[in-house]
């Protein structure tokens, strides 16, 4: 995870140039691909931030009249990256987002009223609440939100990483899940490791990761090992349950999102005390 893009590209966020030699999709990928026909994944529901990517999202129980939410990375927060252990809730924001059409064209501007939740502890997410509802977005732009899955993603699953910033879609599979991903001062739990075809780059931070079999959002794109270093910023390392450390230069990662819906109740209101909510708390 590197500094996001500011205006023009100033730094790469994710490794993209170097693919892991010899890497191949997980063996379950073929079975997953045969299980169901792939749904159409395009830019509908995605947004471009000034320095990152993101998406308009809903919980499975969200209503059309609820205030809409935008999901991106914690390290894309406009006030700066949250410190390790820091959790931000209900912080005022007027950040703007460019809403994209299915083909990636600019439809209009959405605006936040607050940061509902943001952290870089265990995960890497920021969730904005918007000044408009899903129904209003649908009526004005013909765009529906992406729905966040409530189940753990599967190894081998076919996925697409949809970058609103670059208007580019990356296609690959989930290679494996990482017990702990260590990058600089930050630790992420149960991260998604992509197969090498998802060679995401700076500006793709916060992109939704969509399961092509269901069309559901299963993770949020966030980092990759650029230079083969161990556990430094821009060079995350994998740490297993026994403490063994490995690196995969040129391989990129995402953070799972299936635990988010349990933390949002009626009216898309954040409730970190809700049963089943395991997001880090302030």
How would you explain this protein's 3D organization?
This protein has 2 domains: 28-42 and 149-256, Trypsin-like serine proteases (Thrombin, subunit H, Beta Barrel), CATH 2.40.10; 46-147, no CATH class. The protein has 282 residues and is mainly beta. A hairpin with a 4-residue loop joins strand 9 and strand 10. Helices cover 6% and strands 37% of the residues. The chain has 2 helices and 16 strands. The longest helix is centred in the first third of the chain and has 8 residues, at 28-35.
Q: What key phrases describe this protein's structure?
A:
282 residues; mainly beta; Thrombin, subunit H; 2 domains; six-stranded antiparallel β-barrel; six-stranded antiparallel barrel; 2 helices; 16 strands; 6% helix; 37% strand
Main sheet characteristics: 6 strands, antiparallel, barrel
How much helicity do the residues have?
Answer: under 10%
**Derived structural class:** mainly beta
- Radius of gyration, CA atoms, in whole angstroms: 17 Å
Q: What is the CATH level 1 assignment of the largest domain?
A: Mainly Beta
Total number of distinct structural domains? 2
CATH superfamily of the largest domain: Trypsin-like serine proteases
Distance between the first and last residues' Cα: 22 Å
Output the CATH topology of the largest domain. Thrombin, subunit H
Task: List strands and helices in order, with pairings.
Layout (H helix, E strand, L loop, with lengths): L27 H8 L10 E3 L4 E6 L8 E6 L14 E6 L3 E5 L5 E14 L5 E9 H8 L4 E2 L10 E6 L4 E16 L2 E9 L13 E4 L5 E8 L12 E3 L5 E2 L5 E5 L26
Parallel strand pairs: 2-8
Antiparallel strand pairs: 1-2, 1-5, 2-3, 3-7, 4-6, 5-6, 6-7, 9-10, 9-12, 10-11, 10-14, 11-16, 12-13, 13-16, 14-15
């Amino acid at each position: 995870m590197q500094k996001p893009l500011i205006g023009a590209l100033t730094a790469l966020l994710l490794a993209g140039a170097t693919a892991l030699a010899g890497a191949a999709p997980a063996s379950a990928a073929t079975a997953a691909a045969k299980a169901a026909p792939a749904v159409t994944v395009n830019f509908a529901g995605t947004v471009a931030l000034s320095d990152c990517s993101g998406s308009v999202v809903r919980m499975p129980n969200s209503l059309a009249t609820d205030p809409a939410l935008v999901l991106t990375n914690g390290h894309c927060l406009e006030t700066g990256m949250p410190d390790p252990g820091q959790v931000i809730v209900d912080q005022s924001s007027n950040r703007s987002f460019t809403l994209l059409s299915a083909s990636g064209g600019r439809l209009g501007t959405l605006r936040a009223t607050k940061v509902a939740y943001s952290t870089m502890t265990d995960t890497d997410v920021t969730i904005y609440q918007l000044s408009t509802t899903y129904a209003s977005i649908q009526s004005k732009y013909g765009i529906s939100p992406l729905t966040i899955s409530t189940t753990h993603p599967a190894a081998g699953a076919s996925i697409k990483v949809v970058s609103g910033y670059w208007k580019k879609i990356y296609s690959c599979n989930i290679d494996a899940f990482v017990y702990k991903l260590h990058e600089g001062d930050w630790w992420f739990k149960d991260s998604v490791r992509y197969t090498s075809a998802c060679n995401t780059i700076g500006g793709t931070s916060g992109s939704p990761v969509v399961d092509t079999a269901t069309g559901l959002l299963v993770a949020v794109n966030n980092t990759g090992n650029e230079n083969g270093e161990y556990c430094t910023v821009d060079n995350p390392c994998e740490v297993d349950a026994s403490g063994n450390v490995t690196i995969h230069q040129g391989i990129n990662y995402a953070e799972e999102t299936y635990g988010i819906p349990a933390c949002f109740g009626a009216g898309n209101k954040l409730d970190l005390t809700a049963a089943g909510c395991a997001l880090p708390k302030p």
